[in-house]
Amino acid sequence: ENIRSIYEAIGGEDAVHRLVDAFYIRVAKHPDLIPIFPEDLTEVARKQKQFLTQFFGGPPLFQAEHGHPMMRRRHLPFPITPTRRDAWLSCMEEALEEAEIEEPFRSVIFERLTLTANHMMNTPEEKG
Ligand code: HEM
């Protein structure tokens, strides 16, 4: 029996880089996300490549450089409302398509990221 990680199944480093690049092109243009992201997304994209590599079962690149992920805690400085959660997920859904991540991995990834994004919300709508 050959059990591969999602990371390997989708095509490893190349696929993660395509996905993250397609994602931040959309974040940079999304009116609900622009206010909380830095203008230069180079560093956040680099960290997201590290994080998603380990999230998909590849080498633990994020942890190696930044320690325990603690993603909710790392997001507390930024007001993440339900609207911003939806915006983040819609950018990701389109990026999964543009990066040609194949089924069933595309759906599995989107479901897992939806759970994580829900966990990242920290601000009710009216304060966003
Ligand atoms: C960092 C927003 C969900 C992974 C950030 C930053 C913002 C942000 C504003 C910081 C940018 C900066 O450095 O100034 C959001 C919003 C989300 C969301 C609005 C909607 C729910 C997620 C999810 C994940 C994730 C679901 C993982 C699957 C990361 C990573 C970083 C980051 C790895 C870099 C952390 C670091 O600096 O160490 N996010 N995020 N985010 N986000 Fe999110």
From TrEMBL:
Molecular function per GO: heme binding; metal ion binding; oxygen binding; oxygen carrier activity
Query: What InterPro entries would the database entry show?
Result: GlbO/GLB3-like, Globin-like_sf, Globin/Proto, Hemoglobin_trunc
Name its co-factor(s): heme
Keyword annotations of the record = Heme, Iron, Metal-binding, Transport
Instruction: Spell out the family assignment given in the record's similarity comment.
Output: Belongs to the truncated hemoglobin family. Group II subfamily.
State the protein's name. Answer: Hemoglobin
The species this protein was found in: Gracilibacillus halotolerans
